[in-house]
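Incident review: delayed structure delivery

Summary: a single-chain prediction request sat in the queue longer than the usual turnaround. Root cause was a stuck worker, restarted by the on-call engineer. No data loss occurred. The affected request and its eventual output are reproduced below so the record is complete for anyone auditing the incident later.

Affected input:
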Amino acid sequence: MMLVLVVIAAGLGLVALILRLFSPQIRKYAAGGVCPSTAQLDGKVALITGANSGIGKETALDLASRGARVILACRDVEKGEEAATEIRTRVGGAKVEVRELDLADTCSIRAFAQRFLQEVDHLHILVNNAGIMMCPYMKTVDGFEMHIGVNHLGHFLLTYLLVGLLKRSAPSRIVVVSSLAHNFGWIRFHDLHSQGSYNSGLAYCQSKLANMLFTRELARRLHGSNVTVNSVHPGTVRSELMRHSTAMSLLFAVFSMFLKTPKEGAQTSVYCAVAEELQSISGKHFSDCAPAFVAPQGRNEETARKLWDVSCELLGIEWD
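Output delivered after worker restart:
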């Protein structure tokens, strides 16, 4: 028994030594792509959901540093103001505002959009960034399962309410933050809200697949409007997104060397928002600032159209 423990300890020590020796190379690989664009955004208006922390805050910081007027749409206004203060401190003259938005409540979404349309004349960049991951079974105010309700339906409604302004402000862009997890997702039309059975991981994957299908169908419907929409996989990022899963939080802590920082994770969102070469590119998926693979179920046009119709019905809207 003692010999086994010694061998295990020696093995762990060897692994730790190797990781330490190769940590610069590992970190460089894990960091992924960097947005190469130096485009300036003076006179442009950007709206980012969930921008009080993580990649949302870093996206806001980057766009503000390029001269954009950036609106942080946050459920927690106090944290949003803290993020805005930090951005103003780091970027002299940054034009940053905070507005309350709870994507788990359609009344909050509608109130946000109504005020936004009254007070903001243009919208050039919409980043649907906010999300929830692997939470216990919960429902939104409107009775939707939380993952599909926040990650998909909340952003679906927000985009619907703001798409007219995006068209009037064209050329404009929509960036949808999805995930590699869409590869493991299926749209369970027979039980979209997981009332029959619930698995937090599968619910998350379903919502990320919904993001992919929404991007695809929205791009088709916006063709010719000079409004583009693309989805992104930010990579595996150290952020608050894992707060609902103790096991995943521990796993991420152990392998933190292999994870992206929020700044690194924000690079592809920024790339899709500003890169000149993407001006006319729409309906595509990106990771590490380059085109990325989309699972077959994420390319299914019939499923995309069906999900669109079901989403409109659930939200009580007509979006042709």
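Verification: Strands lie at 45-49, 69-74, 95-100, 125-128, 172-177, 227-233, 285-287, 290-291.
Action items: add queue-age alerting; document worker restart procedure.
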